[in-house]
Amino acid sequence: MAAPLAPRPTLAVTVGEPAGIGPEISIRAAWALRHQANCVLIGDAAFLALTASLIDPEIRLSALSTQALRNGGLPHFGAERLAVIDVPLAAHVTPGTLDAENGRAVLATLDLAIEGAQCGWFDAIVTAPLQKSTINDAGIAFSGHTEYLAEKTGTPKVVMMLAGSPGQDQPYLRVALATTHLPLKDVPDAITRDSLARVIDIIAADLRAKFGIAQPVILVTGLNPHAGENGYLGREEIEVIAPVLEGARKRGIDARGPYPADTLFQPRYLKDADCVLAMYHDQGLPVLKYATFGRGINVTLGLPLIRTSVDHGTALDLAAQGLGLADCGSMEEAIRAAMLMVAASKKI
Which of 26, 171, 215, 240 is the most interior residue, by most CB within 10 Å? Predict the structure, then answer.
């Protein structure tokens, strides 16, 4: 007898900045993967219905109000249509043109996704890109998805990780960051023994719990060129990074390094690695983004929920040119990654 099919995971998909490519790539990716995942779009139902009809008249959407969701939960629509939780916009959308009047509605989609994940309506959250300036211009201090999710879930420390496949027969590449959006001059002071140890602990825990990797291998870069070259090019490797890695190994974490970043990203080193930890944003991410050719994803580690995202922005200039030009590959990969993480986490 064949094994029963696993139920489709239910994923909240926030469509992001309405004037950007987020609504289009969300609809297209969710529709393409509707047989594998129950993707619930969160956004303005009327706007999404219009967008869907222009993309493909065969796409079917069914709208549900936020109140109906809270009162009765999600109805079962099956794979023949996509559910939409209606979060109305305040102003008409002109593709490519930002409008601060819609900033609060954009943020409300994220609030609803978080609420739904915490209540068990959704197994994971997948986010399309939003425009930080729109929300800030609406009078709400907002520094990004990652920081907002951490604040709303009461998570003291999160880690940004980008991931993707460089190509067929290539090892899946995961790159996490010890620091994120900091000026380069501030990076050395931000890398302390305590902060680096916490980052490594979060990476190891989530690789086990959300990716199903029993004994993850983490390769760690140095901060300086040639990993400091025995102290001649900097002492952070000797005084901070190496002692932290030794401590991690004593805690049972297979953390190796520090390695020179300019030679680490080779298949012969990466083939046995589950994640590379880079010290700063532009040390690790240019390599990953080049290697994954626009199909990379962003994963927030350390949260009490699963969140994946595309690895690109709102592309307002592309949206202004009309539908059909945006590549939804990264959104499809973000949905697939969320599906796999849901499956792995349920096996723990």
Answer: 26
